[in-house]
Write a structure and sequence with these properties.
The complex is a heterodimer of chains A (about 150) and B (about 400). Chain A is an alpha/beta fold. Chain A is built from 3 helices and 7 strands. Classes of the chains: A alpha/beta (about 150), B alpha+beta (about 400).
């Protein structure tokens, strides 16, 4: 398809939702979008560009929690990373697991480790942490401090 | 309406020595639903990595898995190199590919042995693991270690492969061809393996794509994802190899893909060795720091694509380090593949995606280098064991039966 063609199609598909686009190299592209556009962008990547969902990453930053969706375009040796920022107060995003089943587990993981709520997730429950993990404690947040109530033997 | 029962497999898996919990919902003998629970082995590696510097991180991720102990470091160093635009010398790239392919052969042999064990074909298990030893010997020769090679570092590799070692590596590699041919014929032609694996646990291409399945799990369903070809890294761009795919997506095809891949791996290693005889130069560009930025590293591990994401703020530690192993994408496919099968088939179906675990125990035999004699052979160990039994008998005053003196004479 060619990297230029892909960038054009993403730009046209996203319109005003494209906040910024950075082409780091011929193999890596980083795109910023508003949180409300996550589902639309994921559908564009999955259905229009037939990209492969690699994984999503959440990062706790000063400004908020940044969530990155990594999409691989295998025919073009390209990884497109879609980034969006949600606030610390009430971090919420639309789940993409309804149409991208590959994202189901990682959304559960980000929910328990970073405290991001995924709206309309089919099965939002603990994946890695114990079922009785205390509520409101998110290990990958910077303000997280270990306490004895997490270890019940 | 028939009654639904839950058959638990785990959290201590009866066959795999790794804790994971499969709740099989069955009606009669037929599996109608599967619930997977993880987290019994969660060690917080990603969080831990944020407290390590970039050099230490490589050693940390090497210990995520005893089998993929090159895959994680290689994906990780590539993520760091992508973040910092670090250039790697050509010779180091060939060494990376050679070590990665050796790991693939030993991992596939390990799986093949386990798969044989799971269907009750223990001869395959014993033989596969016996020849896996030869691969570990090559890795020991190259890196000094059978597992956890410690070869990768940002900017290159830690150890060169000496020119004088190359003929020995070639010799050991030649010895592998015949055993792998034996396994190929044994699996492809054996009626018992056909009966247990053909048409069992089928993953359709549509489901493989939907679940984002990777590696042999996807390739057995005809989805030719191989990041060695699709996202070239290490020396794979300069090497000639085929991506093996099958069509049916059943357990049999997953086995066939893995066996045929071992031949490709041998081809790749031979090409790397040829290149290493001529390509000169350093094996490490010795980067001093990682500038602020972010990077993605992928590597085709034996089980599929390993994904690492690293973000640096210019300090000596990563701000965020995301690790995604291929089993994270492959294990959920079990929810589809076990449906409609019997409980007896579930064991091999759940194992067919090759969920990974560590096995590094072994006995050491010291060899006298000038004479090549075993300083401690099997006979000596049996003698020690007999001496200990004698001592205990004397101490406790026990006079039970003893094994005959000549039991081990022909060993």
């Amino acid at each position: 398809m060619g990297i230029d063609n892909i960038i054009t199609r993403i730009s046209e598909g996203l319109g005003d939702n494209l906040l910024s686009l950075k082409q780091k190299s011929t193999r890596r592209v980083y795109i910023n979008i508003p949180p409300a556009a996550v589902r639309q962008t994921s559908r564009l990547m999955l259905e229009t560009l037939a990209a492969r969902f690699q994984i999503a990453t959440g990062v706790d930053t000063r400004e908020g929690i940044e969530v990155m969706y990594h999409w691989a375009l295998d025919g073009d040796d390209l990884v497109v990373t879609i980034c969006t920022m949600v606030g610390h107060e009430k971090p919420e995003l639309d789940s993409i697991a309804l149409f991208c089943v590959a994202a189901e587990w990682i959304e559960r993981e980000m929910w328990e480790l970073l405290g991001i709520h995924f709206r309309d997730h089919p099965d939002l429950r603990h994946l890695l942490l114990a079922d009785d993990w205390p509520e409101g404690k998110y290990p990958l947040r910077h303000d997280y401090q270990r306490s004895s109530d997490e270890v019940k033997a | 309406m028939s009654k639904r029962t839950i058959v638990p497999i785990g959290p201590y898996h009866a066959l795999q020595e790794e804790p994971e919990f499969f709740k099989l919902h069955v009606e009669g003998e037929i599996v109608v639903h599967l619930d997977i629970e993880l987290g019994y082995n969660h060690r917080g590696i990603e969080k831990l990595s944020e407290s390590k510097d970039f050099e230490e991180t490589i050693f940390l991720v090497e210990r995520i898995c005893g089998i993929c102990s090159t895959s994680h470091p290689l994906a990780c160093v590539q993520a760091v190199e992508d973040a910092g635009n670090i250039v790697v010398p050509e010779r180091a790239l060939f060494i990376r590919s050679a070590v990665g392919e050796l790991e693939r052969i030993h991992s596939h042999l390990l799986w093949l042995g386990l798969a044989g064990h799971f269907i009750g074909f223990n001869t395959i298990w014993m033989w596969a693991w016996r020849f896996r030893e030869e691969v570990l010997n090559i890795l020991e020769l190259i890196s000094g270690n059978r597992n956890h090679y410690g070869m990768m570092k940002p900017g290159g590799v830690r150890r060169d492969i000496n020119k004088t070692d190359i003929p020995a590596v070639r010799g050991l590699l030649d010895k592998l061809q015949d055993p792998i041919k034996l396994f190929r014929d044994a699996v492809i032609e054996d009626p018992l393996i056909h009966a247990r694996t053909k048409g069992i646990g089928v993953l359709t291409p549509e489901l493989a794509v939907a679940y984002g399945a990777l590696g042999p799990t996807a390739r057995a369903s005809g989805i030719g994802i191989d990041v060695r070809r699709d996202h070239p890294h290490a020396a794979y761009e300069m090497l000639d190899f085929d991506v093996v795919t099958c069509e049916n997506g059943d357990v049999f095809d997953k086995a066939v893909v893995r066996i045929l891949e071992m031949f490709e791996s041998i081809r790749i290693i031979e090409q790397c060795l040829t290149q290493l005889e001529t390509v000169k130069g350093p094996v490490d560009s010795d980067p001093k720091c990682v500038p602020p930025g972010e990077g993605v590293g992928v590597y085709e591990a034996p089980r599929g694509e390993v994904f690492h994401y690293v973000r640096s703020d210019g300090s000596n530690r990563p701000v965020r380090h995301k690790v995604r192993a291929p089993s994270f994408m492959n294990v959920p496919t079990n929810r589809e593949t076990v449906l409609g099968g019997t409980v007896a088939d579930a064991t091999i179906i759940l194992a067919a995606v090759d969920p990974c675990y560590c096995c590094t125990e072994r006995m050491a035999v010291a060899v006298d280098s000038p004479g090549g004699d075993e300083l401690w052979g099997t006979r000596d160990l049996i003698r020690l064991s007999c001496e200990k039994t004698d001592r205990l008998m004397k101490e406790t005053g026990w006079t039970g039966p003893r094994p005959p003196e000549n039991l081990f004479d022909n060993r």
